[in-house]
Amino acid sequence: xxxDIILAGVGGQxxxxxxxxxxxxxxxxxxxxxxxxxxxxxxxxxxxQSHLRLSDKEISSDLIxxxxxxxxxxxxxxxxxxxxxxxxxxxxxFTNTTPFNNISDYPEMDVLMGEIKSLPRHIALDADKxxxxxxxxxxxxxxxLGAASPFLNIELKNLESGxxxxxxxxxxxxxxxNIEALHAGRNFAxxxxx
Amino acid sequence: xxxxxxxxxEAIAQGAIDGGMSGVYAYPGTPSTEITEYVQKSKSAAERxxxxxxxxxxxxxxxxALGMSYAGKRAMVCMKHVGLNVAADAFIxxxxxxxxxxxxVTVADDPSMHSSQNEQDSRFYGxxxxxxxxxxxxxxxxxxxxxxxxxxxxxxKIPVLIRITTxxxxxxxxxxxxxxxxxxxxxxxxxPVQFVLLPSNARKRYKILLENQAEFxxxxxxxxxxxxxxxxxxxLGIIACGISYNYLMENFKDRECDYPVLQIGHYxxxxxxxxxxxxxCDEILMLEExxxxxEEQLRGLLNRGKKIKGRLDGTVPRDGELNPNIVAAALGYxxxxxxxxxxxxxxxxxxxxxxxxxxxxxNSLNESMKxxxxxxxxxxxxxxxxxxxxxxxxxxxCVDMGASITMAKGAADAGLVPAVAVxxxxxxxxxxxxxxxxxxxxxxxITVIIADNSTTGxxxxxxxxxxxxxxxxxxxxxxxxxxxxxLLPVPKKHNEMVDVxxxxxxxxxxSVIIAERECIQTATRKKKVIKTETITV
Lengths: 194, 537
Hints:
The complex is a heterodimer. Helices cover about 40% and strands about 20% of the residues of chain A. Chain A is of the alpha/beta class. Chain B is α/β, with parallel strands linked by helices. Chain B has three domains: about 5-220, Thiamin diphosphate (ThDP)-binding fold, Pyr/PP domains (Rossmann fold), CATH 3.40.50; about 225-330, 3-Layer(aba) Sandwich (Rossmann fold), CATH 3.40.50.920; about 355-525, Thiamin diphosphate (ThDP)-binding fold, Pyr/PP domains (Rossmann fold). In chain B, helix 1 crosses helix 2 and helix 4 (about 60-70) runs parallel beside helix 5. The longest helix of chain B is centred in the middle third of the chain and has 24 residues, at about 200-220. Chain B is globular. Strand 2 of chain A pairs antiparallel with strand 7 of chain B.
């Protein structure tokens, strides 16, 4: 078993929290894990990505080879497409549809959504709206994780305990809201289906 | 034994804590910052009273670590690759003095220049200083090399260098930790003149370093970090240094490679093992992250031996970091890729944060400079370097820490008046003060804007060593107090800022404008901390 995941977004949108939750859950399952992340200059409002690799065997490279990622999990719609060369022919794309527009040449939304919907395997959801709906506007990243969770080869309870470990120091209320966000995203994926 | 999930940088920090380190010394710099930050946050480091405050720059860090070593304790100094240029004087000479307590110099290189102005390869510095160099293949080796490096340093009385690159530093994996070793007690060097590099002593010390070279070569030859893997197919032999070994193995199912492979993680290069590989195989493929250092040694000047494929013959690109695909191409494997990036995907370069004080500084500076034209603003290393990009296009140089003030002075000496320097508070403390003194001594007509956000912003908000002292430093080195101006960079003070800058641009001498407002990131974080504390109470 191996799962190679590209996490995508804009600096400050919380992709490293997604990586940390999956990472904790993977450790509980005694999986091997490598997770490469971006620090430094790009974190200032630039495009950021993280390569997250899980496997039951030893993992060699910290970076996922091109065309071999099993999924892209993106908290921003345009950013989800930036890493298509990394995605395998059978790979899935999960993305938030709320744009983070801090550039002058951001594409038209309908053209952008058309591009995402042309992909054979994708789930696109308005994670910001869903997060606001459950009164946890900062948890849109975990909503997207929830949408990807049925495809992860990791049990829901492990992800929940990952959230407990990662957000625990911020208090029980934050943990509760993020677990709700995880479920909200997962429900969306299960209800709308692929 | 515990298993921890650690970044490569954090693994080095944990290794040093467990290896009996008494102090870490560093100036922040991507991709090395997380080593020191980890020690600062570590509970066990706090319990063990391990020093971990930031230093003013890499040179002071290197020298302080050497002082701790002199006093018998184990010390680590950390920096990014270009930081070693700053620390080079102390670093090279520490190989001549040798050490007392174990001393590890950890340097994080940044091939592909993710957050840097060059991709220099610190292994050359190790070779230059003639000291042992470690280059871990993964997070576990990063931990082990760091933990065990102190003992090796003490055994041979020599500093050792650990070289990592961005990908290892910023990638997480499981690390098994070992027992925690005791810290050393204070002891002074047994040889009273070991650290006195008067020429007569230095010549003796240098001979000792030269004599030790054979020993260092033998250590490499026997090192567990230099592994020879047998292979049936001898049409190609592969040498893989550091993390390039991972990219190589990624290309073989179940990590089974038919070619003989020499994995290198400990320098000087293990000559006998290389000789064996070259003798056994028809051709050699050289994989190393950074410059073609081993490849150049392998080729020699005339390259009359076997065919060596690598960065110098174009098999591997001459610049940039490696990855599994580049290695696949070097092996002649078919290219794998997914779909192309759709053309609608626009570039999203980094930018100054919304509400950042640097924005207000550049807006007012640009307006003030209109009457003089472009190409007169020298700047420096930090968030404000983003002022070079649209919409500001406000600065015309970024070379090295502190170069804004000195380059402005040189340009003014040449007749480019007014010349402006824009420098951050942390960079000013790091290397700006001495340059300003040069300008003061000649009353050179330059206008220095200190963009003071009270932190080291770009690397994530570390303490700035001149915090609260900038004005007194400027006065102390002799800037005329009438031409030290303080501004609050906020949008509503725009006109006032423009007036002050314009006035100082006209002054025929050194002006310093201190534009002080806290970094929006650190300010937000502090607010959050206060909020959480309120909730817990």
